[in-house]
């Protein structure tokens, strides 16, 4: 006797489609947030290098938008997981986008700190230390925004190979940071009047290095979505992150 297929829930296909659309919109919001975070970093560094208080204020005025993105995406990701109980791959995506917004919010925090320093420079703080490492600041900003852009694009295109490439740029960023610190140390030893401004400049450089770390963390979340493997605590050179 032939088996009888169980009755099909007429709402099942509709529910799955609603979830897919909501998840796609959620990912789009994260990509949009990523674009804003990238612009925040590049604008903050430009404000610092140019001593432009108005540009610094643009960064500070947009900080609330970054925070709201994080809150809204986190709420929606939680709602999707709670209501739809998604399959493993969709669950990984929902969890990943929530984690990625945390990383992007922290990128926004680093941009805010650099913008505040730019505002102090525009108000009369000595510019010698920034001028001394301007080349490094500019190059590190290019590296970090490039890493962020690739990480966000990897999420948008679900491209694990692009995500793996992000970590490979970290060594160049570290080398630039170390060289800039040596330059600042030389300057501080020559003229102690620059001590306070030198410390602020070190924090700006360190902030850019952290932006690179956040870009790596985002790329690792993309790999988590693609493979289901958590590579956050693996070392560079391990098979999963080569």
TrEMBL record:
Q: Which Gene3D superfamilies match?
A: Phosphate transport system protein phou homolog 2, domain 2
Q: Which GO CC terms are listed, alphabetically?
A: cytoplasm
Positions of the PhoU domain: 31-117, 137-222
Q: Where is the protein found, in the record's own terms?
A: Cytoplasm
User: Which Pfam families does the record associate with it?
Assistant: PhoU
GO BP, one annotated term: phosphate ion transport
Taking the first listed entry, what is the main subcellular location of this protein, grouped into a coarse class?
A: cytoplasm
Q: Respond yes or no to whether keyword Transport is given for this record.
A: yes
Per UniProt, the keywords (alphabetical) are: Cytoplasm, Phosphate transport, Transport
Task: Return the similarity comment.
Answer: Belongs to the PhoU family.
Self-association and partners: Homodimer.
Q: What is this protein called?
A: Phosphate-specific transport system accessory protein PhoU
The opening ranks of the lineage are: Bacteria, Pseudomonadati, Pseudomonadota, Gammaproteobacteria, Steroidobacterales
């Amino acid at each position: 006797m032939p088996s009888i297929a169980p009755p099909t829930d007429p709402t099942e296909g509709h529910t799955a489609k609603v979830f897919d659309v909501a998840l796609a919109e959620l990912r789009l919001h994260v990509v949009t947030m990523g674009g804003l975070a990238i612009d925040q970093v590049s604008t903050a560094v430009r404000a610092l290098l140019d001593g432009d208080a108005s540009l610094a204020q643009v960064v500070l005025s947009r900080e609330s938008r970054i925070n709201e993105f994080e809150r809204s995406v986190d709420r929606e990701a939680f709602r999707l997981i709670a209501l739809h109980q998604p399959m493993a791959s969709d669950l990984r995506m929902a969890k990943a986008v929530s984690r990625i917004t945390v990383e992007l919010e922290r990128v926004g925090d680093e941009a805010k700190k650099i913008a505040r320093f730019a505002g102090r420079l525009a108000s009369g703080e000595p510019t010698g230390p920034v001028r001394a490492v301007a080349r490094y600041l500019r190059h590190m900003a290019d590296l970090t925004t490039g890493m962020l852009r690739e990480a966000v694009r990897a999420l948008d295109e679900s491209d694990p190979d692009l995500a793996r490439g992000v970590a490979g740029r970290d060594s160049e960023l570290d080398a630039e940071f170390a060289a800039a610190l040596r330059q600042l140390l030389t300057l501080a030893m020559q003229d102690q009047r620059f001590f306070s401004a030198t410390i602020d400049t070190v924090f700006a450089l360190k902030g850019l290095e952290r932006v690179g770390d956040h870009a790596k963390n985002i790329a690792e979340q993309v790999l988590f979505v693609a493979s289901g493997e958590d590579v956050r605590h693996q070392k560079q050179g391990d098979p999963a992150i080569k």
